[in-house]
Design brief:
single chain; mainly alpha; Cytochrome Bc1 Complex, Chain D, domain 2; 5 helices; binds heme C
Length: 108
Amino acid sequence: MRFAILMGLAATAWGEAPDAENGRHLFARYGCYQCHQLEAQGAAATGPRLGPRPIPFANFTKYVRRPTGQMPPYTAKVVKDSELADIYAFLESLPAPPPVKDIPLLNQ
Ligand code: HEC
């Protein structure tokens, strides 16, 4: 309940609350998936895993705006701050992988 109130306040302060469903859509539309894969699970040859526990939002935004490696930059003209917040919400919403102890093949 208290959490819901806080979320409500945050939404009022920053405009729209981040929308994970729209984030999933944008992740595909802006081509993030081409390197990071559709569930952001990453692939060794193209780009690292981004979720379900993404790096802090400030670092995330900074990297997308000014990457230092192979990744192409996305300026605020191309992907708005609010859209990055939606993409971030999508990454946070991804299900966590099961613990190793629950994967029979890894417990023989
Ligand atoms: C052409 C391939 C490519 C595309 C498209 C791409 N990325 Fe990346 N991304 C990478 C690679 C490769 C890295 C690893 C660091 C590097 O080489 O830049 C990376 C790193 C990152 C990181 C830093 C991860 C960390 O743990 O430090 C974030 C955040 C990120 N990408 C988000 C995005 C988002 C959001 C999009 C879409 C708007 C996107 N990327 C599109 C290739 C890509």
